[in-house]
Each structure stands twice: as C-alpha cells, then as structure tokens.
Amino acid sequence: MLGSIADGLTRSVEGAFASVSNTFFEPVIRLGVTGLSRSGKTVFITGLVANLMNRGRMPQLSAAAEGRISAAWLQPQPHDTVARFDFETHMAALTGDDPRWPASTRTVSELRLSFRVQPVGLFASLGGPRTVHLDIVDYPGEWLMDLALMDKSYAEWSEATLERIGKRPMAADFLATARAEDGSLRLEEPKAQALAAAFTTYLTAAREAGYSDCTPGRFLMPGDLAGSPALTFAPLPMPASTPRGSLWREMERRYDAYKREVVRPFFRDHFSRIDRQVVLIDALGAIHAGPQAVEDLRRTMAEILTAFRPGKNDFLSSILLGRRVEKVLFAATKADHLHHVQHPRLTAIMEAMLRDAKDRAAFAGAQIAAMSLASVRATVEEELQHDGHVVPAVRGRLISTGKMATMYAGELPADPARLMAPAREGAEKWLDVDYQVMAFAPARMNLGPNEGPPHIRLDRAAEFLIGDRL
Ligand SMILES: Nc1nc2c(ncn2[C@@H]2O[C@H](COP(=O)(O)OP(=O)(O)O)[C@@H](O)[C@H]2O)c(=O)[nH]1
Ligand SMILES: [Mg+2]
C-alpha cells in the first residue's frame, strides 16, 4: 500500500511536469512497441525509424505526403538507465550485402527520433516550425502479460494456471512433478528449483507450440533476473495445511516478491509513460499452429486490452493517475508471407479477434484498431498456375537453405468465424486446410536516396499511431 502511494506521488509530480512541458515546449510522443518474442518488434522499429527518416515510401503518412516534415533525426534518448535501441546495428544487418534479420533482444530499449514539423494550411500562420519528439519504447509482451498477476493471489494464480494447462501435452511433465510434491512439507531449495525449471520448460514448449499465455513473463524473458529467487517458483495445488516454512508458503512468498519487485517496477517505470501503443502479433504463426493457438491468441488479446483500461484495475489506476494510452494498434506482422489478395482477410481476422477481445474486456477509452503489415518486405508476389487455377503465392530466399522458394500460405477464409468458431469449440486441427509458414531472409535492397526499406502498410500504421501529432 505504502509502495503504491509513493509510486503515485512521483508519478503525479512527473505527470504534471510532463504535461506542462508538452504544452509549452517540445511535445513528446511515447510510443510503446510490444508483442511476444519473435512477433517482430525489432524489425518493426528498425523499419519504422528508417522509413520515418527517409520518407519516400510513406505516402499514407499525411505529414510526410504533405511535405510538413522538414527533417527527422535520431537523438540521445532521455533515460540514462534504459538501453538504447540499437538502430544502426539492426539496420546494417538488414541492408548489408548478405541481409540478415536483426539479432533478438531480451529487454527494454528506447530510441528518440525528433521531427522538425512545418505547419501548413490553416495553421501555417500560427508559427514557424516545431520540434516533436517520438520516444519509441521496445518491451517484451511477456512482461505485459504479467499484469494479470497483480490482482491474483498465489493461490488463485496457481489454481487458474493448473486448470488451464491441465490438458496440454507439453505440460504433462511439469504437472507430474507438481502433483508429486506435498506443499505442506518443509521447503527444500533443490525441489523449488526443479519445479521452477520444469515450469519454465513447459512455458518454453507452450510458446513454441504457438500459445500466447505464458505468465510469469520473466520465466521466458528474464532480462537480468535469470536465476534469482524471485524467479524460482511455480504453481502448486494448495495443500490442506500450509505451515510456515512449507514449500507452498515459500512459493507464495516468492510469487509476491515477483509481483512487488519485478512486475510493479516495470509498469511504474516504463508502461505508465506510454501514450500510444502498437501490439505486434504473429497471427499467421498462430493460424499455422492450429485452432488452439488461435483461441489462445483471442484470449490473450482480451488480456492485453485490460492493460489499457486502467479504470478497472486498482493497481494500474494507482500508477497511472488518470493518464492513459490514447491509441492502441493491434498489427498482424509478416503479411509479406501472403499475396496482397489475401491481406484483407488477414485484417478481417485481426478485426474480428479484436472486436471479440473488446467485448470480453468491456473495453472503452483508447482508440483501437487492427491491421496487417510487413515491417520489412522479404518477398515478391508470384502467381502460380495449378490445375487451371491461379494460386496467389509469394517468393523469397529461405533462411534455412539460402535458396529461392515459392510459398502459398493456404487460403484464409473470407469469414473469420470459420477460424474462430472451431478454435473456440476446442478443435485440435483445421478441418479442410493446412496453413504454411516459411522463414524468409530479408531481400537485398538498393535503397534510393529518400527511401527506407520496402514494407507493407507501415505508413498507415504510423499515420494511425502518430499522424495526428505531426
Ligand atoms: N517476412 C518477414 N519476416 C519478419 C518480419 N518481421 C519480423 N520477421 C521475422 O520474425 C523474426 C523475429 O523478429 P524480431 O523483430 O526480432 O522479433 P522480436 O523478438 O519481437 O523483436 C525475424 O527474425 C524475422 O524472421 C517481416 O516484416 N517480414
Ligand atoms: Mg526484439
């Protein structure tokens, strides 16, 4: 309690200062970029920043199309204790002679891009050029998912988790280990470690199988906390008695420490400052993984939305103090795995899932939208002839073999319910189609003087997220 009051005080002082400086000095937009590991955050930020600096491929960003942005440049970021997003290294990997995807990152990073904006039209007479700062914050979606822990006790979290994973084959080993323990017996550290390790193994396998629900987030993305006691717990069935010093009690204590020392500071120091948010989703990956992964994604989207609905969450309200995220974009990434004729279907699937998530979360407040995009386009389109039909496919260089390959992902249904209904009903497999994904390497680029890397709808995403502030 004291903690949350103190957090609140600092936030409100900062908040007041921030709004004064926003109004009278140089406005700052804080754009959060999140998504589970491999959803495409690093590639998105790299592609976005490169295309905001060289705006030849950004016709749908109105400030760029209307020539209002006279300059854009990178600046030292304002927070000394947060890692800088390593734009130059990532860009070099993408645009080199042997183009590669950037190396993966495992923690929070930040970058400041500043714009010189010239008012035009009605506002042109109001003053000269302004400077607008865009602070981009890259943070793991796994950490965002931890918000769900804040209003759950260890007993509640354990029960909900054990129930949810009960039927998943990859959880069998962990469940056997957990059931063999008697939580009322005295803690033995090696047992606690074995349980945490087994649970981490389960979480990793679940992620690989396409599941998105994966709390505690630091078990998969430990940042600098790997091996610390706050990460050495796991869900356990509640025993009849939980005496002091028992395994169950100690797990409960560590769970509470995790919330207090890990989850709370992240939300207070990073999340609470965000104005605009993009959530990247590997929707094609989930579709490829099957109905269970799609159902899980739908639930996860609702859970993510609750993070942007502070009124309903005491913990969030205590750190946000009335501040809130104004716009949230859910973007299906890697749309370059589909020929453009299928893009509207992918977008429709995202929109249907978002509508559903919105209803579930009884969401109101921020402006939200769904979209499909490719941050960096790695393929070209190709129409194949097959049995007298035209198959709209894509072609690119495979990472695995380095050879060119043509891929047809499978036909997405025109009606999203065709995917969502079997998912909800617990189907194990899609009935009539098989969805493919392949891992393509980025293509070699010859960028013109005013061009960023080729992309799909990154300009629309930028227009939605920050267009009104430029
Ligand atoms: N084809 C394609 N692949 C992408 C795109 N964005 C990301 N990827 C793939 O997804 C992987 C993970 O992306 P990354 O940005 O590192 O994900 P992060 O873990 O969320 O930061 C990359 O290594 C690429 O293989 C895209 O726009 N097109
Ligand atoms: Mg990354």
Characterise this structure:
The protein is an alpha/beta fold and 470 residues long. It has 2 domains: 272 residues, 3-Layer(aba) Sandwich (Rossmann fold); 116 residues, no CATH class. 41% of the residues lie in helices and 16% in strands. Strands 1, 2, 3, 4, 5, 6, 7 and 8 form an 8-stranded mixed β-sheet that branches. It has a 3-stranded antiparallel β-sheet with strand order 9-10-11, with no helix packed on it. A hairpin with a 6-residue loop joins strand 10 and strand 11. The chain is globular, with a radius of gyration of 23 Å. The two termini are 40 Å apart. The site of magnesium ion has 4 residues, from helix 2.
- Dominant shape: globular
Query: How many distinct helices?
Result: 17
The CATH C-level class name of the largest domain: Alpha Beta
Assign the structural class, choosing from mainly alpha, mainly beta, alpha/beta, alpha+beta, or little secondary structure: alpha/beta
Order of helices and strands, N to C? HEHHEEHEEHHHHHHHEHHHEHEEEEHH
Mean pLDDT: 89
Number of domains: 2
CATH architecture of the largest domain: 3-Layer(aba) Sandwich
What ligand species are in this complex?
A: guanosine-5'-diphosphate, magnesium ion
